[in-house]
Amino acid sequence: MNAHNLLQTPIDYLKGVGPNRADLLRKELGIHTYQDLIHLFPNRYLDKTRYYKLKDLQQNSAEVQIIGKIVHLKTVEQKRGKRLVADFIDETGKMELVWFRGQKWVRESIRLNTPYVIFGKVNWFNGSFSMPHPEMELLEEHEKSLRTAMQPIYPSTDKLSKAGITNRVINKLMQQLFIETGGKFYDTLSEEIKAELKLISRAKALFNIHFPESAELLSRAQFRLKFEELYYIQLQLLVKNMLQKKRIKGFIFEQIGNNFSEFYKEHLPFNLTGAQKRVIKEIRSDLGSGAQMNRLLQGDVGSGKTIVALMSMLIALDNGFQACLMAPTEILSVQHYQGLVELCKELELSIFILTGSTKTSKRREIHEKLENGEIDILIGTHALLEDKVKFKNLGLAIIDEQHRFGVAQRAKLWKKNVLPPHILVMTATPIPRTLAMSLYGDLDVSVIDELPPGRQEIKTVHRYDSNRLKVFKFLRDEIAKGRQVYIVYPLIQESATMDYKDLMDGYESVVREFPMPDFQISIVHGQMKPADKDYEMERFVKGETQIMVATTVIEVGVNVPNASVMIIESAERFGLSQLHQLRGRVGRGAEQSYCILMTGHKLSEDAKTRLQTMVGTSDGFEIAEVDLKLRGPGDLMGTQQSGVLNLKIADIVKDSQILQSARYYAKQTLTKDPELKAPENKMINFTFLQLRTNKNIWNYIS
Ligand code: ADP
Ligand code: MG
């Protein structure tokens, strides 16, 4: 049997495993085969060259390793169950070892007055040390076993440790695996890449990750394996993107016709920024390429994505197609609708809006007009996704604020025409480049990284609740100048009565502080009927109310240029990206705008970092990077997508440089040899196909 087949052997066959352990390994760690075990990488390493003396133990020592003997064993009855206690000594002192579980087994297997090496965490209580559930090995065995300075610590679970599958057992199994396979693992990267990056062989890397021969070899092993993991993810994403382009034909929009040209020459309300021009060019070239466009457009709040969307839709129209724009909320859809109607008023276009609250008769009219092509642009909420909504000829679908829609919804839009329409996804939540590369490696990405000119920096400050009176005074001054104000309360869960009460208490205190008739106050929250929400929102938009008390329902997209102050209550309870989104609601007009972050005095370290970041920068990408560091990628993207980052050894945040390099090399490989047919890429091709069929870390690639 060659080494490769051997690795597919079920784990049950490894000496020392047996049916029970095999079952646990499968269930708890997902280890089914030899190969899976080899890929169980340690979480960390401990310095095992050091043996402690009992007299040198510190109250807050981490895990320690001690050589000594058990001189006495006794069972101690206690209120809840029994515990087994051993007196353990070395030549410098004495401590207790304690077991709460597995006592029978310990009692039967332990040899008194025989040298052991014990390992574990010590507790300090009532003037003496003890060690619960130590790992133990006879000194004699310990000296024989394959052991290195850096002792790997493997991921474990409660069930595993209860069943006695300790770190030491895993270590033993790993040794056994290397013995049975002879440690001969084929390489998966080309000689060229290995040479350029000075990578050690895969076999050497796998050995050193489990049995480090030196600190240097360990770090080279880690580098090599991280690189490999990221390289294959990138390769997979790039190949997917390539195939998509080849396989999925798109409508070809060759013409730049009247609508686009006329709008560009005569009706543009402002000069486009350089970034907007660049992005429109990128989109134009996609639309003319013959392949279906799948593009992600990232641009910070206020960067001017709407005009890019409109101009892309005009290209579709010029080529005889319809276009649609989908937004996550009713309010946003209405705003887009009004904005686009205004922008296009000189063009003869038929623009309609369809949302959940569209009347049945109107709905019917829209359905009909869509099907016979009388509607050019349809704007709306996910009402657009309903089966009844059929286009005559949908050529381009735009989704605003991607993070509110799932991948499934993107796919639904595809089915709205014989050929899938071109898709443009727009998001204002900056996704750090590293993350975008892994998540959207199959989408092309455009970035608007420049704000329209004349935008003023929003002054952001952090104030404690105890300064509330001063803040209110400031608000009165701003309102006196004719400005409008948002006051936002956290409503982490729309259903949580607790949060809701905060909001209502807040509202009442605002009403007291800013009494009628001098002040008019709106309130909007998720528990209101949509019609009431819209009514209140409308009053604020028209300037009939000066203060908008709201929950995060206003977070996305709302545009009221005259609103220049954003107060965020209990700001410590919001995540960074949410704070940034909220702040983006102001600073949309010509006036100096402010964002005031209100908190109590008790703040966690993370909360402090978030507040400092907000005060320190308004760059969405910078904020996203900090967010990623604080929260980790899974959280950032929401649970549905967190599986994406289920990496075995690399860390998307910490290893972003390796990721960049992996992407670079994956691109190079494919540029030189798109079908991976060249002899020097034989192993790459083999591994690539292998990973596809095995579907281990690749499950997420839909
Ligand atoms: P977002 O990217 O957040 O969707 P919008 O498209 O709503 O941003 O644009 C925000 C504001 O900036 C709008 O009022 C829009 O008219 C204005 N705007 C967009 N592009 C420019 C530009 N190039 N010059 C001046 N103002 C612009
Ligand atoms: Mg927008």
The outline comes out as: globular
Strand content: 15-25%
Mean pLDDT: 86
Instruction: Please identify the top-level CATH class of one domain.
Output: Alpha Beta
Structure description:
Belongs to the helicase family. RecG subfamily. Residues 467-634 form the Helicase C-terminal domain. It comes from Antarcticibacterium flavum. The protein is α/β, with parallel strands linked by helices and 702 residues long. Among the domains are: 44-152, OB fold (Dihydrolipoamide Acetyltransferase, E2P) (Beta Barrel); 258-287 and 304-427, Rossmann fold (3-Layer(aba) Sandwich), CATH 3.40.50; 459-617, 3-Layer(aba) Sandwich (Rossmann fold). The protein is 42% helix and 18% strand. It has 26 helices and 22 strands. The chain has a seven-stranded mixed β-sheet. A seven-stranded parallel β-sheet has the order 12-13-11-14-15-10-16, with helices on both faces. The protein has a six-stranded parallel β-sheet with strand order 17-22-21-18-20-19, sandwiched between helices. Strand 12 (351-354), helix 15 (360-371) and strand 13 form a beta-alpha-beta unit. It is globular. The two termini are 34 Å apart. The model is unreliable at 635-644 and 695-702 (pLDDT under 50). The protein binds adenosine-5'-diphosphate (ADP) and magnesium ion. Magnesium ion binds next to helix 13.
